[in-house]
Amino acid sequence: MAPRIKVENISKCYRIGQKSASGNDPRYRMLRDVLMDAIKAPIRNLRSGAALGRVEEFWSLSDVSFEVNEGDALAIVGANGAGKSTLLKILTQITTPTKGHADLKGRVGSLLEVGTGFHPELTGRENIFLNGSILGMTRSEIKSQFDEIVDFAGIEKFIETPVKRYSSGMKVRLGFAVAAHLDLEILLIDEVLAVGDAEFQRKCLGKMDQVAQSGRTVLFVSHNMAAVENLCPRAILLDHGRLLMDSTSRDVVSTYLSRLGTTTGQRDLTDPTIARGGTGKAKFEHIELKNLAGASAGKLGMGDGIHFHTVVNADQEIRGAFINFIISDSRGDLITIIHGSDQGDTTFDLVPGKRQTVDCRLPRLNLHPGIYAVSIEIRSGYNLKAVDHVERAVDFEIIPADVFGTGKHPKKAQKIFLESEWSVTPV
Amino acid sequence: MGDMLMEDAETNAAQADAALAKPPQANRGTVIRPRSGWAFINVGELWRYRELLFFLTWRDVKIRYKQSLLGITWAVIQPTLYMVVFTIIFGKMAKVPTDGIPYPLFSFSALILWNFYAVGIAQAGNSLLMSSPLVTKVYVPRLTIPFASVGSALFDFFVAFSVLLLVMVFYINFSSADTSGVIVGPIMLMVFPILFLTILLALGVGTMLAALNVAYRDFKHTIPFLVQLWMFSTPAIYMSVNEPSAEASTPSVTQQDANAAKTETEVKAENPVVQNEAGGAADAELGIWAYVKKTLQLNPMNGLIASFRAALLGHPLPWKELGYSTLMVILGFIFGCMYFYRLEPKFADII
Questions:
Q1: Interface test with A, best of B22, B32, B212 (most A CBs within 10 A)
Q2: Are B215 and B125 in contact (CB under 8 A)?
Q3: In this structure, is residue A416 part of a structural domain?
Q4: Which of A70, A96, A102 sits opposite B345 (nearest CB)?
């Protein structure tokens, strides 16, 4: 059987660093610049000769090839900037590749954003038709599914209300409802599931699963590893624009997570490629997770304690600094923040050029088995602004253990467990 | 009818698909390749997205009138106000030649076509920036976006046009010795091909402006200026551009004007604006006028507006000018769309 999607040696190059006469970003060219460049060019040619026209190239994708058969659901996994979105934008024809080609057989629907083209002045009903036609549905298709869409979004009462009066949740639900009823052979889906409340997310995941089971060809980009494993049997891993791996999603997800430095439980944070936020006046240099015995550990049993060990280096003096450890699950949902200034006086002063270690111990971690991510940040005690922030600095895995001493494990699909004392008394 | 057939074919194919669980519609595929250089419109794709074109047009119309106090009357007010101003300035004060047509009728018939064109290209020019999510977040044939803007301007045109028809009824039996009103006749049907040519020109120029607007961020400031300048370069809107010698129907008015111009020029005869071997001042004046006229003929709107008015009022058409404009319109449409297609692959990266 011929593959539904056939991608061959797709590459995409962006030009960066090219400055125009006024020093503006070349992406935002001004007519003024073009005219000025034309005037200045002869002079500059004389002055600088060879240095002219040096353009830095950035290959967002290089030589990516894969095939997807009919009815397959393929996940695209990778860190930020790996080229996932670029790949999706090329396959949806939003942008063109620099090299290579792709053949897609059948009608292609894309869902890179929920509710594209919604207009606030139009009513829900009008926006359903508008959005549907933007996504490539015919009017008769929209008409025949109209009631289902309204029902799925749960906005029956507001269908004649302008969308500008909708809550943001309602807008998102309506947008997803239209997209979910796209009846096309190929669906390209970006991470749009991280929207809405928990109940709606579950509904979306259910719908996605249904789509993937219905014989349509699905390409799915996500950071949500649970959803990836759930929806797609197969996945590809992108890293800096290259295809690193094409395998079962279980293998790909575990490779992806291990590449993030997960299982070793420690990570060098001086690597300049790490994306970080904050003012940068001080930086984390190292993070290590240990068990309470003091050994470095990326895996912990349920109910074990955990010890966060960080090394901080400052460029400037910061008084009253404190550190937050932010724990989220593999879907990126926040579990809890271990707040450095709420739990006792744990603030400290940072002195330029002097390294300090900060340690934090949790006697018992009531988390369910699964992979969790720790994001870390330093905040200034003066204005509470973030000085340094590293998203997903390190991951750890919780493995099942007999926490209650009964031999029974708590059931799945929970995040935390709590110990409890019971009493049953006849009255 | 055609639409229904198409949809039926589609649903049939979909049902066949469901029944056989085999890949249907292999012809519906997409081939993605690097694109560069010049290309022309993908007509098949535009046709597949005709409903989107309709919905985008409908959206523009709906939004424009949804929250405005005057609603649909906006489409009429603008040309009407222009007509009043033009009648006072050009009709009463400057007394420009109008081939004997009453000035309000003369200017209003031109202004509604001009207004369609001006609004159409200005809206189309800004359309891509206004709907940038349609460019960066989803794939639709980008040409539909400026096309829809012209479509919504066309809606305004038809609203104003129905008002114009009422005005025309008033002037039907207006013709006398030196004035001519509406002469009902089959030539009036020429209004539609002329309107079609104007739409083509608006599409061509509008798409080109839209592409330029994405490519150069400061281009949007030049659009209102460009439209204004273009209006002044289209004298057919406010005065007759027929040559005085060809003025058979109303010799009196234009002859007077020519005489007045002659004496005026004789006063400053020593000023050699244009070399004229005959040396006659009046000839020099006519020479300038001929030169200006030739230059203005580069502007296809002159011929279109003069022809539109002539056809609408049942007067003889300026066929030569219309033929020339037709040529320019076709060139303009092709060039505009080709330029748009050339820049299109970069839109999502630079918008």
A1: B32
A2: no
A3: no
A4: A96
Query: Which of B234, B121, B249 has the alpha carbon at shortest distance from B183?
Result: B249
CATH number of the domain that residue A176 is part of = 3.40.50.300
Please write the tens of the pLDDT for every residue from A127-178: 999 999 988 888 898 999 999 999 988 888 999 999 989 887 888 888 888 8
Total domains in the fold of chain A: 2
The residues, ordered by sequence, that sit 6+ positions from A335 with a Cβ below 8 Å of its Cβ are A327, A328, A329, A367, A372, A415, A416
Which CA distances in Å does A282 have to A268, A376, A378, A382? 15, 13, 8, 14
Stretch (H or E) spanning A300: strand A299-301
Do A315 and A229 fall into the same domain? no
Q: Does A144 touch chain B (CB under 8 A)?
A: no
Note the pLDDT tens digit of each residue in A309-349. 999 998 888 888 899 999 988 767 788 998 887 776 778 88
Are residues B134 and A116, on separate chains, in Cβ contact within 8 Å? Answer: yes
Which percentage of chain B shows pLDDT scores above 70?
73
On average, the pLDDT of chain B sits at 77
Give yes or no for A259 touching B (CB within 8 A): no
In this complex, do A106 and B25 lie within 8 Å of one another by their Cβ atoms? yes
ipTM value of the model? 0.74
Give the chain A residue nearest B212 (alpha carbons): A31
A25 touches chain B (CB under 8 A): no
Range of the domain at B81: 39-236+269-350
Domain containing A372 equals 266-399
pLDDT digits (tens, 9 = 90+) for A31-85: 777 777 766 665 555 554 444 445 667 888 989 999 998 888 899 988 777 888 8
Clarify whether residues A287 and A197 are in a common domain: no
